[in-house]
Design brief:
This protein is of the alpha/beta class. The chain has 26 helices and 24 strands. The strands form five sheets. A seven-stranded mixed β-sheet has the order 3-4-7-6-5-8-9, with helices on both faces. It has a seven-stranded antiparallel β-sheet with strand order 18-17-14-15-16-19-20, sandwiched between helices. Helix 6 packs antiparallel against helix 7, helix 11 crosses helix 21 and helix 17 crosses helix 18. The protein is globular and about 80 Å long.
């Protein structure tokens, strides 16, 4: 149709402005700022070509595919339908010269576990129709299943989804190419079909899986290179190559004949963090950008590889070469070999680059910093636990998960709760606390799916412990910078969801010394060079190591800014063997930094947007952002941070509902609130216990009532009606594994978030 309607106009830059700028190479914000200063377009230089002016419409000789990243699987009960309310937590941008190429790239970028366009979950016929009719975050895989199984035609899919025929035909092209490849073996696969597959965006691993006898990715790569099928490097120059351009903004494609640029000469490659998602957001981008800037200050040529249009690291003026490309073994090797890079830095981009350490090392890549073998020793749960025992560092009792029976036996021996921990995961994916046999069986199944190639470890979960972290920088197994900080929440809340305090305010000198001693031993045993993050739990006289990340952690920006020393610059210097003596770094022996103030980092959550999700925290991360504030003491800094997240101070009425186990602790807090002038309301059991402990409160009915009335004068009032009518200013609802009123608790929390 040629009918168009304007539905909204925003007189500002929008979320898609960054995407449009990165997709075209035309920096909208930069040009808009010049216009606001009264400089006409005819005088604004095109920053990409450096020869033409900005008074033109960008022209493209490539196709960009942007796909959002959803993390709805991390939330219990959330509706997975997508519609007019935004639910995605990040996005990626795949660049190619056909839709097939850019689309498959983007699918792999969204989640490295996606091989490309293909079925992911097997749907029954009814489930498939439902998935096609109602858009969810998995709809594209339903389309793939329908086309791969030949259970529906393009026309039938179009009738249900109303997706344009043109896009569906491109999807059909990818399926036809896959079907052609699947009839061949590696030996019989001819050059033309191999080239067609690469031009349609198939990775070497994808081709190997499609071929008969499933040859490895390395064997497919060898055949491809022997056939002289290599990607060419193209520039994003805003002018479709009509004018000369000097840009360093690059992508790779198989739909081209010649390279637009000469090969690089010995740069240092820095791998970015990929899509923003729960567990990996702008904090890792800060680390990557700090690393690039440090390299350039020291005179090194720097190459950034990343594919997130929302980041500073994908600004082409931040580095000497920017490859807007996949963070995969295949693509990193393509760039590394073409540009004769002198090394690759993996440790500033989070878990995705870190997970490439072993395969890249096996392929002969020079990894700067900690050796790949040592990274594997820290990431592999069993190897790490063995190593911790070997060097005499205390840790919770543990066992490698071999069978369900052995897990049950372990749980019976140490007692519930137990913690199930997969290897090589970010943000606690599939990490779960089990309180009984049934929960443990469910946790084991999920963990085994997430960590198929690496061990799953089951360990004793320490209740009521405080969690402590050590962020540090090491050189040849010796810490040259360090900061110890504590969590306000007890252990059991993921570190990304916890509130961090630096310097620690409640740790004893004994606990801090135990952390220092253990950190030195671990860093020495792993011979770490670069950033590291070590996590501990402390209870009584026990200070136990639970995890070591041989990479930058999400708290590095907060620690660097609070301590007044750039830990990533120090780590970068260590990895390229440059002295850090002039940086005035805090060490494990430093006792007076920071001095005169306290820093608190608090998480931000998006429960309001995720309809139906349960706003409760656990060992798997749920926050989507963070804030940090400073104050003269812990209380001031904490309150500032809390208010910065959008929290509103209650004016008068506070509702309390907690499990009987917590009544003793809650009584003291509730009485403080009463003394501060607040009016307290409580659900039946909580209210009766508080009243018995001489804390004045009004009892109101549960959301589901069950015939239980409130205090005389409040018989018809229940939790939901009072929250919805804005009669409650703050809700304190603290469940435990012993909670029986699960529906009441959920309805209370969810209504508090919604209203």
């Amino acid at each position: 149709s040629m009918e168009y309607c304007i539905i909204e106009v925003n007189a500002r830059l929008s979320r898609s402005s960054a995407l449009a700028s990165k997709a075209t190479g035309y920096p909208l914000a930069f040009v808009a700022a010049k216009l606001a200063l009264g400089i006409p377009l005819s005088e604004v230089e095109n920053a990409v070509t450096k020869r033409t002016k900005a008074c033109f419409e960008p022209s493209l000789d490539y196709i960009v595919t942007k796909i959002p990243r959803w993390d709805m699987a991390k939330f219990q009960g959330v509706s997975k339908e997508i519609g007019s309310a935004m639910k995605s937590v990040g996005e990626v941008m795949g660049i190619g010269r056909t839709l097939e190429e850019s689309f498959q790239k983007a699918l792999r970028m969204v989640d490295p576990s996606n091989p490309g366009f293909g079925p992911k979950e097997h749907y029954t016929k009814e489930e498939l129709l439902q998935e096609l009719q109602v858009p969810t975050d998995k709809r594209i895989f339903a389309i793939a299943q329908a086309l791969y199984e030949k259970s529906m035609t393009v026309e039938e899919i179009h009738e249900i989804t109303k997706i344009d025929h043109w896009f569906l035909r491109r999807c059909e092209n990818m399926v036809k190419t896959h079907d052609a490849v699947s009839k061949e073996s590696l030996k019989s696969l001819n050059k033309d079909l191999l080239l067609q597959a690469k031009q349609h965006g198939f990775s070497d691993a994808q081709i190997g899986n499609a071929l008969q006898h499933s040859p490895s990715e390395d064997h497919v790569r060898m055949k491809r290179i022997n056939a002289d099928i290599k990607p060419v490097t193209k520039q994003i120059d805003t002018l479709a190559a009509e004018y000369p351009a000097e840009t360093n903004y690059l992508y790779m494609t198989y739909n081209g004949i010649e390279n637009d640029t000469k090969p690089g000469e010995g740069s240092v490659m820095v791998l970015g963090s990929g899509a923003y998602r729960i567990g990996s957001s702008i904090e890792f981008d800060w680390c990557a950008v700090s690393c690039i800037r440090a390299l350039r200050q020291m005179g090194f040529q720097s190459t950034m590889v990343n594919y997130n249009p929302e980041t500073v690291s994908t600004d082409y003026d931040e580095c000497d070469s920017l490859y807007f490309e996949e963070l995969s073994k295949e693509r990193i090797l393509d760039i590394y070999q073409r540009d004769s890079a002198q090394g690759v830095i993996l440790s500033v981009g989070g878990q995705i680059p870190n997970g490439l350490a072993v395969p890249l090392d096996a392929a002969g890549v020079n990894i700067l910093g900690t050796q790949a073998k040592m990274i594997d020793n820290a990431e592999d749960r069993m190897k790490f636990s063995d190593m911790i025992d070997e060097i005499g560092v205390q840790q919770p009792r543990w066992r490698e998960l071999l069978t369900v029976d052995s897990a049950m036996d372990f749980a019976a021996r140490v007692g519930y709760p137990v913690l199930v921990r997969p290897s090589y995961v970010l943000s606690g994916a599939a990490m779960n606390v089990a309180w009984n046999d049934d929960q443990l069986k469910a946790c084991l199944t999920e963990a085994a799916e997430v960590s198929q190639d690496y061990p799953v470890v089951i360990s004793d979960f320490i209740e009521g412990a405080v969690e402590i972290e050590m962020d540090g920088v090491a050189k040849d197994g010796e810490l040259i910078a360090a900061a110890i900080h504590e969590h306000i929440e007890n252990a059991g809340v993921h570190s990304g969801d916890a509130t961090l305090v630096l310097p620690p305010q409640s740790l004893t000198n004994y606990q801090k010394q135990r952390v220092r001693d253990a950190s030195r031993k671990i860093v020495k045993r792993l011979n770490i060079t670069g950033p590291t993050n070590i996590q501990f739990v402390a209870k009584g006289v026990d200070v136990m190591c639970i995890e070591c990340n041989v990479r930058a952690s999400r708290s590095f920006p907060f620690v660097s800014k609070t301590m007044g020393a750039d830990f990533i610059e120090a780590a970068t210097r260590a990895m390229v063997n440059v002295s850090t003596e002039d940086m005035n770094l805090p060490t494990l022996e430093t006792r007076n930094r920071p001095s005169g103030y306290v820093g608190v980092k608090a998480p931000m959550f998006s429960f309001t947007r995720l309809r139906g999700s349960d706003p409760v925290l656990g060992v798997e991360m749920a926050s989507t952002g963070e804030v940090a504030c400073y104050g003269q003491n812990k209380e001031e800094a904490f309150l500032k941070s809390l208010l910065s997240t959008g929290f509103k101070m209650p004016e008068q009425n506070i509702l309390i509902s907690c499990n009987a186990d917590l009544i003793v602790e809650m009584t003291h807090a509730a009485y403080q609130l009463h003394e501060s002038g607040y009016t307290l309301f409580a659900t039946r059991e909580t209210g009766e216990a508080l009243q018995a402990n001489h804390v004045p409160c009004t009892i109101i009915g549960y959301p589901t009532h069950d015939g239980q009335k409130g205090t005389p004068g409040h018989e018809d009032q229940n939790v939901l009606s009072m929250i919805k009518e804005k009669q409650i200013d703050m809700v304190i609802n603290i469940p435990t594994h012993k909670s029986k009123r699960l529906d009441d608790n959920f309805l209370t929390r969810r209504t508090a978030v919604d209203f």
